[in-house]
Amino acid sequence: MKHTIWIVDVTNRDGVQTSRLGLSKLQKTMLNMYLNELGVAFSEFGFPTTNHEINYLNANLELVQQGVIDKTRLSGWLRAVEGDVELAYRNVPGLKYCNLSMSTSDQMLAGKFGGKFNRKDILNKAVRAVHLAKEKGALGVGVNAEDASRTDLDFLIEFAGAAKEAGAVRFRYCDTLGYDTPDVIYERIRKIAEATHIDIELHCHNDLGMAVANSVMGARGAVDGGSDAFINTTVNGLGERAGNADLVSCLLAIVHGSGMKDYQLNPNIRLNKAWQLAKYASYAFGVPIPINQPAVGANAFAHESGIHADGALKDRRNYELYDFEELGRGEPEVIETGRVITTGEYGGIKGFRNVYEKLELEFKNDAHAREILELVRYANVHNQLPLVESELRFIYHHPDIAAKVMTITPHYTGEEKNA
User: Fold this and answer.
1) Which of 47, 59, 191, 356 is surrounded by the most beta carbons within 10 Å?
2) Same domain for 114 and 188?
3) Which of 260, 285, 310 is a domain's end point?
4) pLDDT at position 241, please?
5) Which CATH number characterizes residue 255's domain?
6) Domain for residue 342, yes or no?
7) Under a CB-based contact definition with an 8 Å cutoff, are residues 402 and 25 in contact?
8) Cβ of 284: how many Cβ atoms within 10 Å?
9) Is residue 175 over pLDDT 90?
10) What Rg do the C-alpha atoms of the chain give, in angstroms?
11) Do 276 and 360 lie in a common domain?
């Protein structure tokens, strides 16, 4: 069977760690819905050891149980520490997929752990964490090597092999500082795959501007070494520091890149959902899509110079590698220039009904309308943004889930104040 390249989107885990940015729990839920429509294999949807994530995580797993999220598996991130595994499964008992993270480079052992642990210590910690996660009911466990690109290759092979023997199904190679180059990561990943025969995730940062190139070449290395490849992405390339590998760019590189025709992409991917996803993430994060962003930027299909415009009009293939329709672009966007009725945190029932009538959604009775209105009001407070159509529809169809994801109780005991 031909080995496949899959996508593990980490926007809801790594993307939300972008300094100065973030998403509400409703926005994270909507992102999972959009990723499911796109057909990505996994969404790393959050942190099961973090108190303010608990309701959101459990509610999204309910969406999986209900068949609403049916293509994308939801995976949690936690440290490869037994205490974290215990806490994660106490908070989110229905968690079926998780990635356990451990720093592996000598730099991290000395500079992060202060020399308290050696290589044998961190290997044993990771193995024990995998065993425990399996005992708690995890169906799929991945093990992360943080700072893998600066870790000795022989130790990485030993680490990945031990994780596989303990029951892990994937090994995540983290280019945590964006240090690798495409030729180097290809060779390192191919050697790990050949030595261990474990499926390999590529988690690449963009500090040198090569996150997409490194991800694609790392995936080729995994497949050429006899393993499935799982590329970690974020929508619009957001992420810590200079960001992560951009989701749409990685997909297009696999589908249209030179030399990629023999590499198989997850067949569930529906590229025509890419434009919608990119726009939603841009709105939710409050970060405009760069004008020159591949595929989804305003200039991705724009031509001005005489030679280019003439060539594109004669045959789009002269100056366009792929079609805008393939990404779900091309439909005109309607902007209201007359009277506009919106609904927000201070909205009333008549304006609210008008908004939902335009969406062709009806209420059973006045009590039903007022219940949804209260949720919509709260969602506006929760997001601190006007709601978009997909959010309004989600609240209408899944009010119980919407209420749960927006419910956060701060963990505060007041012990210090009373001491």
Assistant:
1) 47
2) yes
3) 285
4) 96
5) 3.20.20.70
6) no
7) no
8) 24
9) yes
10) 23
11) no
